[in-house]
Amino acid sequence: MADPIFANLPTTIFEEMSGLARELGALNLGQGFPDDPGPEAVRAKAADAVLNGYNQYPPMLGLPELRQAVAAHYARSQGLDLDWASEVAITSGATEALAAAFLGLIEPGDEVVVFQPVYDAYLPLIRRAGGVPKLVRLSPPHWRFDRAMLEAAFSERTRFVVLNNPINPAGVVLPQSDLALLAEFCVRHDVTAICDEVWEQVVFAGAVHRPLMGQPGMRERTVKVGSAGKMFGLTGWKVGFLCAAPPLARTLARAHQFLTFTTAPNLQAAVAFGLETGNDWFAEMPRALERSRDRLASGLAREGFAVLPTQGTYFLNVDLAASGIAEPDREFALRAVKQAGVASIPVSALYEADPVTHILRLCFAKRDEVLDEAVVRLARARELSRGR
Ligand code: PMP
Ligand code: GLN
User: Whose atoms come closest to the Cα of 196: which ligand?
Assistant: First the structure.
């Protein structure tokens, strides 16, 4: 008998749009991956580890040198005091870390508070684990939650909350006051937070990423998920980090043991090297991306598009309605890729209920020529949309 949860799922919007871009030869500002090839020294280290290193199964929890480097990095950059030996595990991407958290921790009937727009992997995995999602709807232009929204979502049945911060696709880096508010609800309802912080290093001037785990009362009740793919702009590497207090970490390790068991050792060695030596990269990478963000935003603004602010991630959002486009986001995105040669992500695809339908997400982690040409093509798509 078909599995109703997975069998009925569509192909994710990221693959759908990248597939169309490949097929049609369009510029791809949809799925989030950078044109920049990533730090050369880290890639050289990976190549060396493949040729001269150990390529058999590494330890199940990850190379000790990488687990130590992760703990040291989070101590330096976020003031966390993680014990590498009992609180850090390496996974095959943040996706596997999230799967381990959902499948390892959620019991059938547990309510899980989830914010929309929601990263595509969360809801299917939460349901597969038997969890019951309780959706909180965030909306533009500020995409923030407040006390009333949390009051409505949390109950005595709530066991987990899933927070993505910095938020993809919104480009919001949550301020201290919002984290404190969510922490208050977690403590009051004895809830565990599963925190997807893959964008933690991609934060621009004026914003500061703070881990929810660092809030009062959260150290023992937070699972923190990170991704080397996002930290180093090597999105295909799929090296993730799972950090949690020992009782949670033990359960997560059991789930990881039977999901992938281990993660490519050569890539782990290179990521450890990158974390130990990457201070210049961590300073320069966001600055370069910020220039790209500003280039795309000002190009779009010159063409009369209404662009929402972005504090982090590879993404900026265009308000289609305010840009004079009456079409819903999905129709406009399909028109833009098919008729104007530029792929994007319609944000409605990341809502399960009551979608926001007038926001288009664009990835600005691209070369200048690509961004400039994308502006021309988006303007063309708008003309076609108006003349329909
Ligand atoms: N969570 C979010 C919010 C993401 O944007 C992404 C990837 N882009 C992931 C998880 C998955 O990360 P990884 O590629 O390391 O599995
Ligand atoms: N995280 C990437 C994005 O938001 C996509 C990841 C994926 O394709 N699953 O674009």
Answer: 1
- Answer yes or no: is the C-beta of 95 below 6 A from any ligand 1 atom: yes
- Concatenated DSSP letters of 267-332: HHHHHHHHHHHTHHHHHHHHHHHHHHHHHHHHHHHHTT-EE---SBSSEEEEETGGGT--S-HHHH
Q: Which of 13, 16, 31 to mutate to test the pocket of ligand 2 (most atoms within 8 A of CB)?
A: 31
The position carrying tokens 């690509």 is 370
Distance in angstroms (rounded) separating the CA atoms of residues 136 and 119: 13
Whether the link from the prior residue into 328 is cis, omega within 30° of 0, is no
Q: How far is the CA of 14 from the centre of ligand 2 (A)?
A: 6
pTM over 0.85: yes
119 Cβ inside 6 Å of ligand 1: yes
Strand partners, 241: 90, 226
- Is the C-beta atom of 198 inside 6 A of ligand 1? yes
Q: What is the chain's percent helix, strand, coil content, to nearest 5?
A: 45, 15, 35
Which residues form ligand 2's pocket by a CB distance below 6 Å? 12, 14, 31-32, 168
Ligand 1 centroid, distance to 340 Cα (angstroms): 28
Instruction: Work out which ligand 2 atom sits closest to the CA atom of 18.
Output: 8
Tens place of pLDDT per residue across the chain (388 aa): 556 789 988 899 999 999 999 999 999 999 999 999 999 999 999 999 999 999 999 999 999 999 999 999 999 999 999 999 999 999 999 999 999 999 999 999 999 999 999 999 999 999 999 999 999 999 999 999 999 999 999 999 999 999 999 999 999 999 999 999 999 999 999 999 999 999 999 999 999 999 999 999 999 999 999 999 999 999 999 999 999 999 999 999 999 999 999 999 999 999 999 999 988 999 999 999 999 999 999 999 999 999 999 999 999 999 999 999 999 999 999 999 999 999 999 999 999 999 999 999 999 999 999 999 999 999 999 999 998 7
